[in-house]
Amino acid sequence: MEEKMTVNKIKQLLTERRLAELKDLIGELHPADFSEIAEELSLAELIEIFKLIPDREKIAEYISELPFELQSDLLKAMSKEQASEVLTEMDTDEAVDLLAEIAPEESQEFLGLLPQDEAAEIKELMKYEENTAGSIMNNEFVSLPEHLTAAQAIEYIRQMSPEAEMIYYVYVLDQKKRLIGVLSLRDLIVADPQKKITQIMEEDVISVLDTEDREVAARLISDYDFLAIPVINKQGMMVGIITVDDIIDVLEEEVTEDIHKMVGSAEFYEDKLIKATPLSRAKARLPWLLVCMIGEIISGSVIEFHSGILEVMVALAFFIPIIMAMGGNVGAQSSTITVRGLATGQLRLHEMWQNVWTETKVGFFIGITVGVIISILTYFWQNNYILGLTIGLSLCITIITAATVGTLLPLVFTKLNIDPAIATGPFITTVVDIGSLIIYFSLGTFLFVYLGRL
């Protein structure tokens, strides 16, 4: 409601040309709040607003929070001089993200507006593969040569690092630019001014390789509660840092992407989901649904194959939905827990069989409990102890199997370097549906035949 009122107020001030009031109103907005409002305004209105802001750094902060497509449109609508100034003021990692998302020809056009050294830095960062630590790092960090004292280091930072994104951590490099230590700004301030920084720095530095997956960096920052983590190359040279605000964005994106993979719509996540056309959304979801349809046709074939026992014991048909639903639910639970555990690092591949065995035992306890309950209910409902025994045993075995398969599949997929998120949702449900019907009818046939009821 407040956002809508702000949008209306901005539009009113623009219409009435009360630009001084508008400038004050915009100046009070946080960049994140402005991004929500900006999507309700036209491109022409946004251009008019940015003309009121003389501070290019402030404009860069506002633009950085907007969707990439809108960022590109705004920069193209500016004069070349203004666009160059705004891009220069943007954090390097944010400029890289923007240029990587837009069309290559537009990217080259924007790079041509930048000073040569700045363009070279951005091009170097754009060489990193998507989803690597290097692709999200910022190369603006505070580093010190190892020979300085604490007092000299403070003066060095004051003179050399006014534009650094983060000065909570100060990194110590040797003559070959290799990372040899780290210290906090607090450590530096409270240290004896004449003490060498090599005497107060932490030598056991936790870092991440620039070619490693960005999730490794996210896990380290989360585990150690860092505000930033240094990024090094294979030679041990420090090339950048990844800050906690970048990691929050990464975690949100990874979780969103995994959720879409789990339900078979991985093509759309982030802003693509909202802006995609109905036809595009349908095309993204159809492949998995067709796989599910084929799976359910196989399930129907299993039922048809056992139609003989259904003709003799019609009550077996009453419990098909229960068997399939319970198996699918347990399988989906197990696979989701496993995929999430793998994503957060709580589950390790070297503990694969231990994890499978643990989840199988969980399935056993659930299966026994549910099996006993359904057996008793079936007996009193149908007045048939063999039917109750069939339903109870089938459900118990189905749940144990579903828990095992739901845990095993994501682990196997990970071992094969296949994204484990696809082993959940529609996939696991289809597999368990087929398996549960085979278990149900096979056990039903066996019990009825060998207990003399057929």
TrEMBL record:
Keywords: CBS domain, Cell membrane, Magnesium, Membrane, Metal-binding, Transmembrane, Transmembrane helix, Transport. InterPro entries: CBS_dom, CBS_dom_sf, Mg_transptr_MgtE_intracell_dom, MgtE_N_sf, MgtE_transporter, SLC41_membr_dom, SLC41_membr_dom_sf. The chain crosses the membrane at residues 286-303, 309-332, 362-381, 387-413, 425-451. One of its GO terms (cellular component) is plasma membrane. It is found in: Cell membrane; Membrane. GO terms for molecular function: magnesium ion transmembrane transporter activity; metal ion binding. It comes from the Bacteria. It is a multi-pass membrane protein. Residues 137-200, 201-257 form the CBS domain. Belongs to the SLC41A transporter family. NCBIfam families: mgtE. Homodimer. Acts as a magnesium transporter. This is Magnesium transporter MgtE. It comes from uncultured Atribacterota bacterium.
